[in-house]
Amino acid sequence: MGWLDAFRRRGTGGPVAVRARLEGAMSQRRLRGWQPPLENINSLIASGGPRLLARSRELVVTNGYAANACEAFASNLVGDGIKPSSLIEDPALRDKVQRLWLAWTDEADADGLTDFYGLQAMVAREMFVAGECFVRLRPRRAEDGLLVPIQLQLLQSEMLPFEKTEAAANGNRIRCGIEFDAIGRRVAYHFRRRHPGDSTDQGMVTPETVRVPAGDVLHIHRPIDAGQIRGLPHVAPAMVRLFLLDQYDDAELDRKKTAAMFAGFITKTAPEEQLMGEIEATDDNGATVSLEPGTLQVLLPGEDVKFSSPADVGGGYEAFQYRTLLSVSASLGLPYHLVTGDVRQANYSSLRAELVEFRRRVERLQHGVVAHQLCRPVWARWLETAVLSGALDLPDFARSPARYRPVNWIPPRWDWVDPLKDIQAQVLAMEAGIISRRKVVEATGYDVEEIDRENAADAKRAGDMGLTYRTSPGETQGARATPFRKPETETEQEA
Fold first, then answer.
1. Of 50, 201, 207, 394, which residue is the least packed, with the fewest Cβ within 10 Å?
2. pTM of this prediction?
C-alpha cells in the first residue's frame, strides 16, 4: 500500500464507520471533560428540585428580564382566559349551562381573590416559575351560599415535598410526594399542611403531611420526558445566564458610577493644612468614607493635577448584552422583544415570522396542558356538582353524562402587527370556503353563537330605530370592495 492509502475514505460498514457517525459518543480530547450523568429526570428533579425552585423564584422577583418574561409567558398563554363553549345540542339548555358557568367563575377561587380566569393566569405563572402547579377541587356545603358548591384551591410546588419517597402503609409507592399503585396510576398526593417557607404560619401540625385522593387534585405541568412525575421550571435553561448577566450589569453600573464621581486629583501645598472648602471625609484609617459627584481626591505633595477620564464601556458592551439576551430568549422559547421590550431592530416581516413560530408553541401548551389538564377536569366536575346540587336540570344525566360534557375551549385572540391584512385574508378564506366562519370567530377569542345573538340584537335595535349600517365585510374591504362615490349631477341623484 502506498502512503496515499492512508488518506482514502474507508468503506461503509464496520466498527470504524459506526464510530464516525457517533462522534458525540467518543472520548477524544475535546469531549474528554463531558461526562453527563445517566440519571433519570425524576432522580435529577428529586435531588436538585428544591434548590432549583428556590433560585427560580428569587430570579423572577429580582431580575427584570425574568419578571418581564414571566408576565409575557402568562399573558400569551391564557390572556384574559381560555373560555368554554358548550356543545350541547339543545340551544336553550346550552344557553342555561353557559350562563350558570359564567356566574360561577366569580366564585371559583377558594381564597376569594380572583375568578376562574384569574386562576388560569396564576397557574401559567407557576408553570413558568416552578414548572408545575397543583389545583385542589374543594367541595362546599349547601349553606355556603354558592351557585355551584365547588371551589378551586391553588397549591404551590413546595407544598408537595420532593424528598418524600418511601413505601406507603397500603403497599403503594410514594415518589416525590405522589402515591402510585401497583400499575403506576396516581392514587393520592401527600401535601404539607403549611408552606415550608412561610414564617407567619407557626402552628403545630401533626402529622406533617396529609393524604389527598388523586381525584381531587389536578397536577398542571408540561411533561418533557416520558415517565416524568414532577415539573421543571420553564425558566430553568436560562437561569445561569440571567443571573450572571444581572451581576455583570450591576458591576458595570457600579464601575461607571464610581469612576464618574471622581472629577480629578489635586496636590496639597501643605499636608498639614486643609484647603479652603475641603471637608474631612476619611475614617480613622485615612480611607475615603463616601463618594459624591464632583469629588476631588487629595494626593501627595509634588504630584501634578490630573482630571479624571474614566474609560468608557465601549461598543462591545451593547453587542455582548444583545447576544446574551438573544440566547436567554431562545432558552425561554420567547421572542426577544417580549423578554426585553426592545423592538428597535424589528420590522413587520421579522416580528410576524417570530410571532408565528412562538404562537405555535403557545397553542400546543394551551390545548395540551392548560385545556387538557385544568379546564376539562374542572368543567366535568363542575357540571356533575351542578346537577347533584340542583343548580342544573339535565335530563338523563346520570345514565349518559358524556352527552353533556363535550365542550370547546376557546383560547384568547391573537393581536397581529397589521390586523387589516389578517382580516382581509380571513374574509377571502371564508369566501373561498377554505375556513368556516365559526373557526374565524373562535380565533378571535369569542363564541360564534354569542356573536350571532349580539349581531341579531343589534340589527333588531337598529331596525326599530331606523338606523342603517354597512356591516358586510365584502362591501367594505377585500376583493369585492365597492367604494362609495358621491353623485355629481342632478340626473345621477334622481337615478
1. 207
2. 0.77
